Amino acid sequence: MVAGIGYRPEEYALLGRDWSRRGAAQDEVLAALLAAWTGEPFEYRGRTVRITPPPLSRPHPGLMVGGSSRVAARRAVRLGLPLFVAAYLPELASYYDELSAEAGLRHGFALLPPERTRVIHCTEDPDRAWAEYGQHFLHEARTYAGWQTADVDSVVRSGARTPAELRAEGIYSCLTPDECLTEAGAQGPLGTLLLHPLCGGMPVEAGWESLRLFADAVLPRLAAAK
Questions:
Q1: 129 and 174 in contact (C-beta within 8 Å)?
Q2: In this structure, are residues 50 and 39 in contact, taking their beta carbons and an 8 Å threshold?
Q3: Hey, which bits of the chain come out as E strands?
Q4: Are 126 and 175 within 8 A, CB to CB?
Q5: Does residue 59 have a cis peptide bond before it, meaning omega lies within 30 degrees of 0?
Q6: Helix, strand, coil proportions of the chain in percent (round to 5)?
Q7: How far apart are CA 127 and CA 77, in angstroms?
Q8: Which has the least CB within 10 A, 39, 158, 174, 195?
Q9: What are phi and psi of 194, to 5 degrees?
Q10: What is the pLDDT of residues 95-111, one digit of tens each?
Q11: How far is 157 from 159, CA to CA, in rounded Å?
Q12: Segments making up each domain of the chain, as ranges
């Protein structure tokens, strides 16, 4: 699980939360979550709380702090958690590594996305998929771009205004199973294929078709290649 604080004041206003206290709110939530997962009593807002049974995963289920700022890196180290970097920011990953080493974290690491990120819709016919779902991809890309400000870093930042421009950018990709395997091979053993089965209001069944095709025609061949 990746825990980020978000970047849209509208979302905080919708829930009646104080935007200026978002960092402090995340500190409190994550500290309480980590304490609850121990199965031991802990203090929370003036009460002694104990959550049982504790999780099977030890010391706790996988949890990372997500963000693109030095504040996020410091929060991750302070809580003893890995950092999920929200964009290709190698300098931020290095900053986290330095702090992690200074703090003596045994399992501290920063997960850095590739410089070029693709969100994938797996299909046997990319041209048909773009013809049928291109407007959905574009709607999502334009909406997401409208939310982002100049000080927000993201692996998915598009300037496209038409489906053709979006396809040329390569951020949204309709790939055949063979092309998925080629992409996986190019990225190497630590690479990531980012599936995006639902976006922009596209039909639910289209998302299931993409997932089924990936599960049936890509995953077995990836496993066999190991």
A1: yes
A2: yes
A3: 2-3, 42-44, 47-49, 64-67, 83-85, 110-111, 119-122, 172-175, 194-195
A4: yes
A5: yes
A6: 50, 10, 40
A7: 46
A8: 39
A9: -95, 100
A10: 999 999 999 998 889 98
A11: 7
A12: 2-111, 119-225
